[in-house]
């Protein structure tokens, strides 16, 4: 993967911005903020535990009395002119809260601005995103993913090239390719960065989880209405309930799913294990 600011056409010096004034508040980027931001420039996505570790490290090194939320807001106000933003979300795979540095431009980030992929490669990426978004399961089979090359217009791409691209998309944290299950889904980074694109382009398919209110691609769907719950949200919502019902307002239909045990953060590997930036 190229250097972060190469990807977005920015230079490192651009991070050293002057204070940004909004109403009466002044958001000043100090060295502690820059060190914290550097971690996101390296990893892109981090679970809350990792974020708090980097936050504590930054304060220990440079001092300061900050709360994490306001600390991130200050960074976001300074990197906003670069169309960048640190967003908080939930991993559909683990149910853990995480933070992600995304391209927040209105023209849908990676789909329009990327020096990391060619136009043809982005067309294939968009095709994968679309098929996954339209799938009731929030994923497609690896075979279906490779077969999408036959549906590309004015683009010639072999299945070998497509597989290489899938591997790159996974290393760059855009998709998750589950070798054991043979399925491909969208990674947290992709959902957070392309959230508006997904809702605008696939509004008939994209719904928010009834519990966490974030986009839900992989989860459990009500058979009587459009309500959907992430698997981990359903496990939490219906815990200790003998006869769970749809939580959507005005529905209340029986919820005919066996609930999995909730995945605890301590059971999960970190986002960065084996998935740091390529150099």
List the helices and strands and how they pair.
Blueprint: H1 4-7, E1 20-22, E2 25-27, H2 31-43, E3 45-47, H3 48-62, H4 68-79, E4 84-90, E5 97-103, H5 119-134, E6 140-141, H6 142-147, H7 159-171, E7 175-178, E8 183-186, H8 188-193, H9 195-201, E9 207-208, E10 215-216, E11 219-221, E12 228-230, H10 231-237
Antiparallel strand pairs: 1-2, 3-5, 4-5, 6-8, 7-8, 9-10, 11-12
Structural summary, described in words:
By secondary structure, the chain is of the alpha+beta class. The protein has three domains: about 5-105, Alpha-Beta Complex (Aspartate Aminotransferase, domain 1); about 110-195, Arc Repressor Mutant, subunit A, CATH 1.10.10; about 210-260, Zinc/RING finger domain, C3HC4 (zinc finger) (Herpes Virus-1, 2-Layer Sandwich). The protein is about 35% helix and about 15% strand. It is built from ten helices and twelve strands. The strands form five sheets. It has a three-stranded antiparallel β-sheet. The model is unreliable at about 1-25 and about 260-279 (pLDDT under 50).
CATH architectural grouping of the largest domain? Alpha-Beta Complex
How many strand units? 12
Strand order of the largest sheet: 3-5-4
Major beta sheet, specifics? Answer: 3 strands, antiparallel
Report the sheet-strand fraction. 15-25%
Q: Which regions have little confidence, pLDDT < 50, spanning 5+ residues?
A: 1-24, 262-279
Question: What is the C-alpha radius of gyration, as a whole number of Å?
Answer: 20 Å
Domain Phorbol-ester/DAG-type: 195-246
Catalytic activity: S-ubiquitinyl-[E2 ubiquitin-conjugating enzyme]-L-cysteine + [acceptor protein]-L-lysine = [E2 ubiquitin-conjugating enzyme]-L-cysteine + N(6)-ubiquitinyl-[acceptor protein]-L-lysine
Subunit structure: Component of the Smc5-Smc6 complex.
GO molecular function: ubiquitin protein ligase activity; zinc ion binding
């Amino acid at each position: 993967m190229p250097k972060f600011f190469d990807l977005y056409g920015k230079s490192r010096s651009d991070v050293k911005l002057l204070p940004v004034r909004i109403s009466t508040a002044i958001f000043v980027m100090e060295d502690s903020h820059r060190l914290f931001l550097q971690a996101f420039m390296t990893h892109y996505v981090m679970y809350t535990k990792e974020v708090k570790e980097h936050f504590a490290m930054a304060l220990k090194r440079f001092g300061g009395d900050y709360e994490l939320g306001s600390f991130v807001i200050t960074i976001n106000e300074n990197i906003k002119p670069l169309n960048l933003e640190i967003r908080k979300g939930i991993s559909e795979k683990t149910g853990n809260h995480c933070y992600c540095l995304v391209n927040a431009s209105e023209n849908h980030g990676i789909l329009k601005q990327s020096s990391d992929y060619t136009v043809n490669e982005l067309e294939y990426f968009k095709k994968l995103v679309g098929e996954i978004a339209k799938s009731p399961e929030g994923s497609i089979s690896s075979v279906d993913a490779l077969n999408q090359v036959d549906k590309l217009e004015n683009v010639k791409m072999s299945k070998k090239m497509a597989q290489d691209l899938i591997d790159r998309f996974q290393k760059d944290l855009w998709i998750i390719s589950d070798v054991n299950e043979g399925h491909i889904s969208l990674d947290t980074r992709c959902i957070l960065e392309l959230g508006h694109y997904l809702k605008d382009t696939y509004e008939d398919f994209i719904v928010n989880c009834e519990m966490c209110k974030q986009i839900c691609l992989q989860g459990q769907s009500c058979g009587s209405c459009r309500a959907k719950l992430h698997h981990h949200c359903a496990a939490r919502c219906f815990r200790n309930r003998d006869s769970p019902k749809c939580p959507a307002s005005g529905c209340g239909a029986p919820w005919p799913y066996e609930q999995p045990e909730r995945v605890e953060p301590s059971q999960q590997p970190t986002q960065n294990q084996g998935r740091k930036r390529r150099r």
